[in-house]
Design goal:
CATH topology of the largest domain: Rossmann fold
Helix content: 25-40%
Shape: globular
Number of strands: 13
Number of helices: 14
Distance between the termini: 38 Å
Largest sheet: 7 strands, mixed
CATH class of the largest domain: Alpha Beta
Strand content: 15-25%
CATH superfamily of the largest domain: Response regulator
Order of helices and strands: HHEHHEHEHEEHEHEHEHEHEHEEHHE
Length: 331
């Protein structure tokens, strides 16, 4: 049975330098930003991360002029993250950018001096990434997000597909730890049961597990699918979206990036807001601020996005009540 807190995760006071222009602050030096990712460069998930250069450009950091990006991708192999982090340290990047806790932990283990900015820190105090949100105290800062209740995903799927009876959950439990989620509450299966749904857990712990998981989905035929794209699933999201389309299976993801790529729905944190928050912190660090003194920001902005083109291809009529609640509808 899945631990609810583990499952739902899938998913002022600053001491700043004087506000000089980036070029003046670095005295002609080109800043190097290292991106450490468990995913793959071609995956839809990377689109959300790489909105960061656009946000930095608005602050005067122009790629190829006064800033360059070094990226290292683990292609779903989480055990490769430490070596990739060490490689970025050897390149002497000025700041790391990470998204998931597993990437941030790998970067933190590789260096205690290079600043690290995380986009989606889950329980960063409990997992040992920072001493506190107000005063991180080390080389990690960024944005912390509260895990969202898994029941919300089930509610949205049930509303979109009223006759839904069984929901598959495609996820990687090995990318989550008890340390990150210390309080075990009721299983997400209970939340599904309250909606009259049967939950089918489909686990993918290694990249070579994906094909077997897809075969099980074909065999078990759940009526809809919730995908938590961490670990080995991170670089396979384009394939998963194509698979769901061929199987005529409604899917929901925790980021709108996947809806842009063809998934039916997403419910999760606003990627633009996260990129802007990260850009502001990187800007401050490159101008001389210490991550130890930059409070970890807390994001609360969540968006619901629905792809009507996908709904039409699936033969679904999305209720007007659901469309009215959506932050964006892709037509």
């Amino acid at each position: 049975m899945m631990d609810r807190r583990a499952f739902i995760a899938l998913v002022g006071g600053s001491m700043l330098a004087a506000p000089l222009a980036p070029e003046a602050q670095l005295a002609g030096k080109v800043a190097r930003v290292g991106l450490l990712s468990v995913g793959a460069t071609e995956s839809p998930e990377q689109v959300a991360r790489w909105r960061l250069p656009l946000a930095l450009r608005d602050l005067g950091w122009i790629a190829g002029q006064n800033i360059v990006f070094e990226s290292r991708f683990a292609a779903g192999y989480t055990d490769r993250l430490p070596a990739l982090a060490a490689e970025l340290v050897r390149l002497k990047v000025d700041v790391f950018v990470t998204v998931f806790n597993q990437e941030t932990l790998a970067a933190k283990q590789a260096t205690d001096s290079i600043p690290i900015v995380m986009l989606l820190g889950i329980f960063p105090v409990e997992v040992g990434l920072v001493a506190s949100l107000a005063r991180p105290g080390g080389n990690v800062t960024g944005t912390s997000v509260a895990p969202m209740a898994s029941g919300k995903y089930f509610e949205l799927l049930k509303e979109a597909v009223p006759r839904l009876m069984r929901v598959g959950v495609l996820w990687d439990p090995s990318s989550l730890s008890r340390l990150e989620y210390p309080s075990a509450l009721e299983s997400p299966g209970v939340e599904a049961l309250n909606l009259g749904l049967t939950l089918v857990s489909i686990e993918v712990r290694r990249p070579n597990d994906v094909e077997g998981a897809l075969a099980r989905i074909v065999s078990d035929r759940p009526g809809a699918l919730l995908v938590i794209p961490t670990g080995p699933l991170a670089p396979r999201t384009a394939e998963l979206i194509d698979f769901a389309a061929k199987q005529r299976m409604p899917t929901i993801y925790p980021s709108r990036t996947f809806v842009d790529a063809g998934a039916l729905m997403s419910y999760g944190y606003d990627r633009d807001e996260l990129a802007k928050r990260a850009a502001r912190q990187i800007d401050r660090i490159l101008k001389g601020a210490r991550p130890a003194d930059l409070p970890v920001e807390q994001s609360t902005k969540i968006e619901l996005v629905i792809n009507l083109k996908t709904a039409k291809a699936l033969g679904l009529t999305i209720p007007q009540t659901l469309l009215l609640r959506a932050d964006q509808v892709i037509e």
